[in-house]
Each structure stands twice: as C-alpha cells, then as structure tokens.
Amino acid sequence: MSVTENRDNYVTHPSGASWIFSRTPSLYFYPRMLGTVLRSWAKARWKGFTDHDWILRSVDIFRHLEKVDCRFIIRGKKNFIDLDEPCVFVGNHMSTLETFALAAVVCPHRQVTFVVKEGLVRYPVFKHVMISRDPVVVKRQNPRDDFKVVMQEGLDRLNRGISVVVFPQAERSRVLDLQRFNSMGVKLAKKAGVPVVPLALKTDAWGQGSIIKDFGWIRPNRPIRMDFGPAMQVQGNGRAEHQEIVDFISYRLDAWQGYARWFGMN
After folding, report:
1. Is 36 helix (H, G, I), strand (E, B) or coil?
2. What is the pTM of this model?
3. Strand 112-117 vs strand 88-91: parallel, antiparallel, or unpaired?
C-alpha cells in the first residue's frame, strides 16, 4: 500500500495485495490481529501499556488491514489537532475497527480515552489493555446511572487533559438510530467547558460475526472512512450543537452509502 498523508488527511492508495491475501483477507487478518492483541496484553499485564504502545499497536492494525487492500480515507484531522485543550469526540459506532484504530489517528496529537461498556473491561485478555487506557465505564443497564458516571468520570478525564470519545448510540450499527443517539457527549462537553468534535465513521469493512460479534468477515471492497467535523463550543442547552453533529454524521453516511451502492460496494 502507498499512502497520501498530510496534516489534515490520510488516504491509502490501493497497490494490490498478493493473490492469497486478496482471496482470504479474514484468514490473513485475524491471526495477526490476535497476535497484536496478545503482545498488547503481555505489555499491559506485566510491564505497563503506555500511550506510545497504544499508538504502535493501533498502527499495526492499520497495516494488517491495508495489507489485504483495505483502504483508509480519513479527513478533517486539523479540526482536533489545532485545539489547545481536550475535547469530546461524538460519533456513530459501526464496528470493532474504531476501537482498535482510532488511537493511531488521535493519540499522536492528544491523550484520549473512551466511554465503554463494562463488558470491555472484563473481556478476556483485552481487558488489561482497556483498563490501562483509564476509560469511563458504564453498565448500559440504567441510562440515568450511566449519565451520572459519564458526567463525573468524563469530567475528571477532561480536567486532566484527556479527550473523551463518546458513542451515544452504544450498539454497533451500520445505520444511525436517531432515537438512541442521545446528547450525552454534548452535555459532557458543556459541563467541562471544552469543544465537541463530530466524528462520522464508516467502518463496516470489519464485519460483525454471527457467532462472535467481534469476528466478522473482512471486506476490502468497503472503504474505511473517518471524518472529523469542525470543533464547536456548546452554547445554551446544546440542542443546536447536538443537531449539527447528527446532521454531520447523517449527511456523510448517506453520501457514503450512495457511493457504495453506485459502485457496488455494499
């Protein structure tokens, strides 16, 4: 793979995977992904897992995907790189890919962590890596309790200069469910007095499995897209900013899906 990268964008240019990799992308990718996870686990369990380690291992995931002709198209990085304070990223959640790959995009420029469900800090092996990232952990059982946790723990992270990624929809989905896409991230940014940055994701190149959700087919014909929108300072009750985030993500998902249908990439 060759890459075009500048301060704002990152684009992988397909160069053609080997015959065997292009025919069996999942068989190539998953053993190498699991090797990366095991190396991360060993470091986190015994020696400590730093931000630098997280970047390196996230870049490994990038390279494994690019090796089978998956193409990353990342836009708008300057919208958070230029900030001189932490921020709240609010985005849709489509697949396991963003959990692994966002660190390579964001962490070189600022410390970051996630709001995650409790299961991720109990997941065998991976839990040690996740815990090392000092995430905000919610149970996904009582929305009111989760809100309190995010407001308290998220504020703590932001006050320490750590940006926070919030996926309001919680469950991974190829579509944006407006009924479940709550304004928690906007409210956190308002409370902390920090900017909120919209994040539109199309990461269904890493599919969901029918038996184990995290292990679906790898589909190189589906471009991996990440678009960061302009940072916004939350005013008033935050409804206008929340709507701007929804519009930003919806517009891009619709455009990307239209592009995919036109070129037969669904």
Report:
1. helix
2. 0.93
3. unpaired
Task: Kindly list the distances between the CA atom of residue 123 and the CA atoms of 128, 149, 171, in Å, as whole numbers in the listed order.
Answer: 9, 20, 16
| Sequential pLDDT tens for the chain (266 residues) | 555 677 899 999 876 666 677 788 999 999 999 999 999 999 998 888 999 999 999 999 999 999 999 999 999 999 999 999 999 999 999 999 999 999 999 999 999 999 998 888 888 778 889 999 999 999 888 889 999 999 999 999 999 999 999 999 877 888 888 888 999 999 999 999 999 999 999 999 999 877 677 788 999 999 999 999 999 999 999 999 999 999 999 999 999 987 666 555 56
Instruction: Give whole-number Cα distances, 172 to 35, 63, 135, 179, 208, in Å.
Output: 24, 23, 18, 14, 9
7 DSSP 8-state letter: S
Cα of 50 vs its chain's centroid, Å: 18
